[in-house]
TrEMBL record:
It comes from Marinobacter segnicrescens. The lineage of its organism: Bacteria, Pseudomonadati, Pseudomonadota, Gammaproteobacteria, Pseudomonadales. SUPFAM superfamilies: alpha/beta-Hydrolases (SSF53474). Residues 1-25 form the signal peptide. Keywords: Signal. The keyword Signal applies. The keyword Signal applies. It comes from the Bacteria. This is Alpha/beta hydrolase family protein.
Length: 480
């Protein structure tokens, strides 16, 4: 193992993006852990296994006042990985592992330095933090879980070897993450992960923020397939989606610019918007602002036409919409027009055994099923059109099905972007999780399942904290 001591100031913004050319995930909690493939198939070969990655040359970062910074390389599940860590002077033995978001498809993995709100809060609470670059890019949550866990278990030994420092033994592990890193943090505390991981870690609490999970990839496929059909281009091959995207957009939306570029121009466009609202969590504040955003519409539409393997993370086709009817009405029954549209979009069944349990690590796509036995606190922005709020509803249903509901607290934040939390929201959530884990004081949260509660125009006001880091929120509907 080695470290690079060249001084370099590293930006503190968290990597919160998910993916551009990824695929699609099932909006049914009943399918989260079933029908996806049980039992390892040694004949499966995925493209990702042949990919090789190198570690960025510059790893160093500047420690905050009163803390010590460390960086270097270690061995991950796919190859070499970078680590970063920061210890306060008053370290009490606890470490918060931080999982970063999607970093694209580069062959170079890069170090992670969390945002300042996270670092300042963790250090003030006496915790060290550590983060892995992971040993692979792409949407590789398997590498994220296993590499983060290995770093956690070997951290103090790595620092002794690389830096000749002895901080003593770690007495508590917590985990936090954003976007794909939120998927990682949530999956890390699942019972299945603890049973199958190569490097299991007994985390005492988790903070998955704006988390993606396996259902994400059905949402992406649903929206794009429905958009193509409503645009009158459903007869064209889905594989040519990107080639036809300009026509899809112009057939459904008014040609405008700025923050509200995606305005429905006709009945088909409005139906697409209403279907999207139903698929992403139902009627709720800030949905309109998220839907109209060219940034997040572009992020979702940019995934259209993918082949179903999540860019080679899986060996077979993952997309499945056999349990869905695409609805733009809210009555108790599906209308004939809704059934007709669903039939035109078509029914697609995932390949059998597409995401099997492995015998040497967690699944290629680790599952978030709401099956855990430690405190978990989540936050999600209501208008997130890329990684939508519906994931919180599926998480709650899974927790209730597995008897974990009392260990899950969820917070809705009134913002339109993906992972667009204020520093105050980030800090408050971390303090509340630490207090819950160490003193048993369960923090407050929001009801995510009652449609009337979620649709209220004041929903999300209880835990939204606007501050200097979120000036753009002034244009949003305000709380009374």
């Amino acid at each position: 193992m080695s470290h690079n001591k060249t001084i370099l100031t590293v930006a503190c913004a968290a990597a919160i993006g998910l993916a551009s050319p990824v695929l699609q995930a099932k909006n049914s909690v009943g399918n989260q852990g079933q029908g996806i493939g049980w039992g390892v198939n040694k004949d499966l070969v995925r493209e990702h296994d042949s990919r090789e990655f190198t570690v960025a040359a510059e790893l160093s970062f500047e420690a905050l006042p009163g803390a010590s910074a460390y960086w270097g390389t270690y061995t991950g599940i796919q190859g070499p990985a970078a680590y970063t860590a920061e210890f306060p002077q008053n370290w009490h033995g606890g470490v918060i592992m931080y999982a970063h978001g999607f970093r694209g498809e580069s062959s170079v993995v890069t170090p992670e330095v969390p945002n300042l709100a996270f670092r300042n809060t963790a250090l003030a609470l006496g915790y060290a933090w550590a983060a892995s670059s992971y040993s692979a890019n792409y949407y590789d949550v398997r590498a994220a879980v296993e590499d983060t866990n290995r770093l956690a278990l070997e951290l103090t030994d790595i620092l002794r070897n690389d830096w000749s420092v002895d901080h003593g033994d770690i007495n508590q592990y917590l985990i936090a993450g954003v976007s794909m890193g939120g998927h990682t943090a949530a999956a890390a505390v699942e019972r299945e992960t603890l049973e199958t991981a190569r490097y299991p870690v007994a985390y005492e609490g988790a903070l998955p923020l704006c988390q993606a999970e396996q259902n994400q990839f059905y949402w992406l496929g649903d929206y794009n397939r429905v958009a193509q059909e409503l645009a009158g281009l459903g007869h064209l091959p889905y594989e040519d989606f990107q080639q036809n995207l300009p026509s899809i957009v112009s057939n459904l939306f008014v040609a405008t610019s700025g923050e509200d570029a995606f305005v429905p121009k006709n009945e088909a466009g409005q139906r697409l918007k209403d279907i999207a609202m139903n698929l992403t969590g139902g009627e709720r504040p800030i949905f309109d602002e998220g839907f109209s955003s060219p940034v997040w519409q572009g992020a979702v539409l940019g995934t259209g036409g993918a082949d179903g393997t999540i860019t080679g993370i899986l060996a077979k086709d993952f997309y499945d919409n056999t349990d869905r009817v695409y609805r733009w009405t809210d009555g108790p029954r599906f209308t004939g027009q809704e059934r007709a549209l669903t039939a035109k979009v078509g029914r697609f069944l995932a390949d059998k055994g597409v995401n099997p349990i492995q015998d040497d690590s967690v699944r290629w796509m680790p599952l978030v099923q709401g099956d855990f036995d430690v405190p978990v606190l989540t936050m999600h922005t209501l208008g997130d059109f890329f990684v939508p709020f519906v994931h919180q509803q599926l998480y709650r249903k899974g927790a209730e099905a597995n008897g974990s509901q009392d260990l899950l607290v969820q917070r809705a934040i009134r913002a339109p972007g993906h992972c667009g939390f204020s520093g105050s929201e980030f800090s408050t959530a971390l303090v509340d999780l630490v207090t819950w884990v160490n003193f048993g004081i369960r923090p407050g949260g929001d009801d995510v399942l009652d449609p009337e509660v979620v649709a209220d125009d004041q929903y999300g006001c209880d835990y939204t904290i606007n501050d200097a880091s979120t000036p753009s929120r002034a244009a949003l509907p305000q709380c009374d």
